[in-house]
Amino acid sequence: MNLNWTAILPEIFITLTALGVLGIDLFYTRYQKDKTLNAIVTLSGMGIAFLLLPFLSAKTQIFTSLFVLDPLAIFFKMVFLISGSMTALISINYLKMEGFDLGEYYGVLLFSILGMMVMASANDFILIYLGLELMTVSFYVLSGFFKTDLRSNEAALKYLILGGFASALFLYGISLLYGVTGSTEISYIAGYLTEQTRTGADSVAGVTSAVLSHPLLSLSLIMLLAGLCFKVAAVPFHMWTPDVYEGAPTSVTAFMSVGPKAAGFVVMLRVLLVALGALEKQWMVILAVISILTMTLGNIVAIAQQNVKRMLAYSSIAHAGYILLGIVASARVLTAGSASVVFYILSYAFMNLGAFTVLLALRKEDKQTGLMVPAMDLEDFSGLSKRDPLTAFLMLIFMFSLTGIPPTAGFVGKFYLFMSAVDANLVWLAVIGVINSAISAYYYLRILVYIYMKEPKVVQSVDNSSSLWVALYVMALATLLIGILPNLLFNVARASVVSLF
Amino acid sequence: METMLWVIPALPLLASIVTILGGKRWIREKSHWLPCIGVGISFLLSLITFFQVWNRGTLHQVLYSWISSGDFQVNLTLQVDPLTAVMVVVVSGVSFLIHIYSIGYMHGDEGYHRFFSFISLFTFSMLMLVLSADFLLLYVFWEAVGLCSYLLIGHWYYKKSAADAGKKAFIVNRVGDFGFGLGVMLLFTTFGTLDYQTIFSRSGEFVGKTFPMFGIEFDLLTLTCLLLFMGAIGKSAQFPLHVWLPDAMEGPTPVSALIHAATMVTAGVYLVARCYPLYNLAPKALFIVALIGGFTVFFAATIGLVQNDIKRVLAYSTISQLGYMFMALGVGAYVAAIFHLVTHAFFKALLFLASGSVIHALGGEQDMRNMGGLKDKIPGTYWAFLIGALALAGIPPLAGFWSKDEILMGTFKAGYYVLWILGSATAFMTAFYIFRLIFMTFFGDFRGRHGVEHPIHESPPVMLYPLTVLAILSIFAGWMLGFPPEHGFIHTFLAPTLAETQGTAPLPETTEGGAGLMFFSILVAALGILTAWMFYVKRPEMPVRFAETYPSTYDWLLHKYWFDEIYDTLFVNPTKQFANFLWQGFDDSVIDGVINGIARGIDVMSAKLRRLQSGYLQQYALSMVIGVIVILGIYLLIV
Amino acid sequence: MLLVIIFTIFAAITIISAGMVAFSQNIVYSAFSLLFTFFGIAGLYVLLAADFLAATQLLIYVGGILVLLLFGVMLTHKIQEVNLSNESMRLAPAAIVVLAFLGLLSIAIYRTQWPTVPVPELTPTTARIGTLFMTDYLLPFEIASLVLLTALVGAVFIARGRVKK
């Protein structure tokens, strides 16, 4: 056995950091007044892992046949580490204010990132499943982290039960696929199915005839899709999203709307485009319908929300719909389509985290108790531009980007997505996407109307901690920079997906 | 340098971003450092670029392609030809001086970092505007400078008048930009590209082509030029879209100096000069440019005669001077227009900064009726002001004389005698109103009550240094650049750009009779100063008597030809009423039926779909299973 | 033939006891029925020659998890009230959905031409599994341990008393 340990160095590092944080917290930080040390250790761990990645990127590396470190995996690991460190940054003061400044938070956060990283690199369904579980279990804990808050409890419980259900479906899909192909390894399955396509009905060995029209294959495809669609919150597997997003701590919601989604999509890219690439005709239609349903439902229901956190939850559902559209397009234009998906995921990570961060930073005075509590409602945003023009302006950037107005990342991202749909001869799909963007403008810009055109209704204050603002600036700048210099990143995205095929 | 062009705009941008992000939290009262250094370095780089262009001709740099997807490509290209070189140096230079000046002027302001960030951002946008090599980028930064101007006019946004002025500037400019946008689109549909070089080199092919609109066949190039000119009218505050500029004086004085005198408002002039190859092929459009310019020259000066707000006098003067430039462009005296643009940038910035120094000294007082006798109290400012005024009035050998005279001469020679008469009459009025300002401010007795509780003080050196530099430029720039007339440095420098386009330029090459005309304009200017002296120093009761004798004329001028009121009656109120009508009459009946129907449909749907989100776990799981079953059913039973 | 009979018995035990888990009105009964479900599945594993899996199924699920479950049930409620209600609700929609799903699965199973392999010999697999865990499947093995660790940390965190402010 010749194991290439360098391939999993970042993962090892994250694991050590996670264990380190738990240990340090247990023996040292717990007894200190200032608990920032936990966050510092977490951030430096993620930083080192992040810096390791480019050095490993020279060529595809393999740690047993189960684990590959190709450019796509590296790209996504970077996305996870960036969004993870942003989450850690915005959490520091938030946890302090909410009274849950504990080491477990960072430990579990790191484990969830580890899970995502494993998913990004997995070349085997067993590993995918384990990564998925590691990530999901971490989020069960994280979403219930405010254990004295009933809504947080509710979120954790709902996520746990439905997540378990979705995992079961996914696992069922894996076992059926194993039954048909005799392997759980993605590259093997891909090769096997492609060969079956070529040889067609007259296969030898008596194993199967016409494997591709095998009902079991469709069954497993649908089960796998159901499990993945749950993770990325696509209709009709999205029902958990609003409730869990609303109940979970806002910092966790922010991360949950980005990390697991990105991880779900990278698995989707590998499973659909590589492993089940031969079945593209089948999954294309399902995904197209799911994509349309997802963006339409997400956008329409978002309009009715008065609670901004819930509204952003629906908005994140809609964005999953846009990304699915790109995956549908990549069935026909492989590189352009999947590159646009990858590009959009990174853009989305920045703008969505940014929007959630503004929400997290904003607090209002509770009329009864006089305490500052998290602001959640549209009304709480009114007149923010007068109280804090800078925060208001950053929110404007994020909302513009989420709507898709140039020169922001969201615009370019949508442009590439819809363009790839057009290239794939799916003009109608692109048109539906554009119509949906128009609908979404209504509720995104409504927040800006409240911020800029209404008089303040409640006493607001904005979290002033440096760590949060560093993160906020990074996200706003990234949102703008990607919008201004998109070609650089798009070339990286394209290079990262080329290795897939 | 060719590959470093991008650094020139990038530095102010970087400074702006860092300052706005870190200003409130970390940099605070040191906010001026980065913008000053950034703009300073880009000024030095501009100078280097300038000399390179002088030696080697036009520079190009393709920065990157913004978006490329198949055939669709948007490239970002920078270009420095002689015209741009002049503009870049003027913009970065004046901007640098004004940055320095602002350190003193804005000291202690609540939005100190915001101010520096925005003014740096403006410098970036303005530099990009002149550096861009295609109409798309030009248009983007055309809007960007407008936005910066809006932000800076409204710097003291809590003041209602400032916020309103910002809004007014923004809306009035929209009118012009609407035309400009249409013009750019027309260019794109005609040429299939927005690249300057391609458009200008191919424009000859489209002479005489027509463009059908509303069933009428318009001459394609004339229409394009006029649409582009609409943008210029708005940005350069020409009649009839001039109304925003005087109100824009609500902004801090450095902003007025930089944006509303030296740089942004000249963007219109730059635009027309840049598109000269197009205008040359559309003589009708040129005629209209000359006409609008000529009328604005005269009309703005008449209003300037009676204004009492020190900055408003300068604002009307700016409108009038910009009119000169357009007049020059219209009659084909292209170099003269740019020449005047440069000298005007120097002396008008000087005047504004000096007026800012006056206002600063008086703690915010802007009404000249409350000033007077400041000559000995703030001598530095006085001398700076005097130099600026002499330059504006056109007294040789100061800067304004050379360029203004060249414009008048060009107009005369091109045969536009009416415009020449208007221009000369305005030269008289210009001398009159600017010296009226000097006499009211610096001579006589102090009429305000300000000094009692707050002694009048000269501005700090950090404000006086820029004044000195600008004063020196106002004295020397004219003859250094433009002597001998029509064959000076600026003429030879700009010649390459002009050469490509001069094919049909109507500018005659004779200098005969020049001396006579020159003498005449000096005489006119001197007469203006003398009249002002008569009115405001010798016999101060005369203006009052004049106003009493001709009350209607006085009122007419004081109220700026009632333009604001006319616009209110003609456009603003009807629009409001129409909006009200739409809202109450039309909206409730028709729109409700159609659009609201859709919106309500979505709302209802939204509410219904929302009810699916019951909160019951079982139902969520059920929906997942149903989802799987439906998909599976379709696959197994139908497909 | 004998195998078929044994399979049918184990399958029947699994399904019937699973049904009792779902439909029993008493949560203690449900928990006990689960025991038979696990047992039946262990039997199926044996039939598939997966001796290690069968043993772990009995050891961990029956011996560990189920006992824990029962402890949980007993401890969370007062032991006197044995009448722990566990009502089945909304039977009609559930029945429709479940039957539809069953129907579709049956169709899929019926239409499939199953690949068949000869009945494997009953050889001990434990050693091979052990070797694989330490070689080819080292990574999944380690990650599984981290999943458990995370679950452990989370469980301890949530179960622990309130945070002192």
Describe the structure.
The complex is a heterotrimer of chains A (501), B (639) and C (165). Helices cover 74% and strands 3% of the residues of chain A. By secondary structure, chain A is mainly alpha-helical. Chain A has a domain at 280-501. In chain A, the strands form two sheets. Chain A has a three-stranded antiparallel sheet with strand order 4-3-5. Chain A has a two-stranded antiparallel sheet with strand order 1-2. In chain A, a hairpin with a 6-residue loop joins strand 3 and strand 4. In chain A, helix 2 packs antiparallel against helix 3 and helix 3 packs antiparallel against helix 19 (466-484). Mean pLDDT of chain A is 88; it is low at 201-209. With 639 residues, chain B is mainly alpha-helical. Chain B has helices at 7-27, 33-56, 82-105, 112-131, 135-153, 160-191, 196-202, 220-235, 244-247, 253-262, 267-274, 276-280, 283-304, 310-331, 334-361, 379-393, 399-413, 417-442, 450-453, 461-482, 489-501, 514-538, 541-549, 551-558, 563-593, 595-612, 617-638, and strands spanning 59-69, 72-80, 210-213, 216-219. In chain B, the strands form two sheets. Chain B has a two-stranded antiparallel ribbon with strand order 1-2. A two-stranded antiparallel ribbon of chain B has the order 3-4. Residues 500-510 of chain B have low confidence and may be disordered. Chain C is mainly alpha-helical. Chain C has two domains: 1-85, NADH-ubiquinone/plastoquinone oxidoreductase chain 6, subunit NuoJ (Four Helix Bundle (Hemerythrin (Met), subunit A), Up-down Bundle); 125-165. Helices cover 73% and strands 0% of the residues of chain C. Chain C contains six helices and no strands. The longest helix of chain C has 26 residues, at 51-76.
